[in-house]
Design brief:
Blueprint: H1 10-35, E1 37-39, E2 45-47, H2 51-57, H3 60-90, H4 97-106, H5 113-123, H6 130-137, H7 148-176, H8 180-189, H9 193-204, H10 206-221, H11 225-230, H12 242-252, H13 256-293
Antiparallel strand pairs: 1-2
Helix pairs in contact: 1-13, 2-13, 3-7, 3-10, 7-10, 10-13, 12-13
Length: about 290
């Protein structure tokens, strides 16, 4: 039986697509234009070709910042995803505790990024901050301004506090969508809690976990506001991620050509990693689905 597809609905979203394309393509074309030219001011530009891209890829500064970005994102994913799953599994599924837990989990997500950075900047200060003063009183030599390890720990804990709720809410949505018949059958078979999680809950959460991993990777890899407010990229360059280095290059040094080239490479790296994540996880999901059908 041949199906007739009605594509009239596309006309409803066409204005939005045109607006988004217009607002995205023009800035992108401007960046591409700057990336192949050089300027000495007075709106005079000179053709540079691929010089800025070659200089960028041969720069230790770029690769060091990229390495810091990857290390930070890997740490964030390894902590926030399992922690989010654990919290979602232990949240109530019925009763008055459900709305309370959902609201409580949503609160960190409502705080703007710059406010989060300011909160943790004050929170970690040794003189007036609750965390810094408490650690100092306990004899712990904590100072995120001058100590590299303390700066990294502060940024990681701050990101966990801010964004684990997103993973929790996504996992919780996947868990509550599982029909009760699965759990009743598992109870009759005498399945352990680990077996229920391994064979029922985790497979049903794979799609929301894919979304959670993609969102958290992209956001952690593009992080800028929080570390800029808390550490400013220091101490030294220890927390200077690609986003901070890009802003320093574009605004601080006014090197528009190299900054434009870096922004394009940065964009392509994010696009590549996101595509790899999505391809690997969806292909694994597809193989699992086929195995289940068999």
């Amino acid at each position: 039986m041949n199906k007739t597809w009605n594509n009239k609905a596309w006309f409803m979203v066409l204005p939005v697509l045109v607006l988004v394309a217009f607002s995205a393509v023009i800035p992108l074309m401007t960046v591409v234009n700057y990336s192949v030219q050089d300027t000495f001011g007075n709106n005079q530009f000179f053709w540079a070709g691929t010089d800025w891209f070659i200089e960028l890829l041969e720069s230790d500064r770029f690769w060091e910042a990229l390495g810091r970005n990857l290390i930070f994102s890997v740490i964030i994913l390894l902590i926030e995803v399992p922690l989010g799953i654990f919290i979602a599994l232990n949240m109530p599924k019925k009763g008055l505790g459900v709305p309370f837990c959902l609201v409580f989990m949503s609160l960190p997500l409502l705080i703007p990024w710059n406010v989060v950075g300011t909160i943790w900047q004050v929170f970690g200060r040794v003189d007036i901050g609750l965390l810094g003063y408490t650690l100092f009183s306990m004899g712990v030599d904590y100072n995120y301004v001058s100590n590299v390890s303390d700066a990294w720990i502060t940024l990681i804990v701050m990101d966990i506090w801010h964004w684990t709720s997103l993973v929790v809410l996504l996992c919780y949505a996947g868990l509550v969508s599982i029909p009760d018949a699965y759990f009743q059958a598992a109870k009759i078979d005498g399945a352990s809690r680990w077996s229920v999680f391994r064979y029922i809950q985790l497979p049903k959460m794979k799609r929301v976990l894919l979304i959670a991993v993609l969102l958290r990777f992209m956001d952690s890899f593009m992080i800028y506001t929080e570390p800029f407010v808390v550490t400013g990229g220091g101490p030294g360059n220890s927390t200077t991620f690609l986003s901070i280095d890009l802003v320093k290059m574009a605004i601080g040094q006014f090197d528009l050509g190299p900054a434009a080239a870096m922004s394009l490479v940065y964009f392509l790296i994010i696009l590549l990693f996101s595509w790899v994540f999505y391809t690997v996880m969806t292909s694994h999901d597809g193989e699992t689905g086929k195995g289940g059908e068999q």
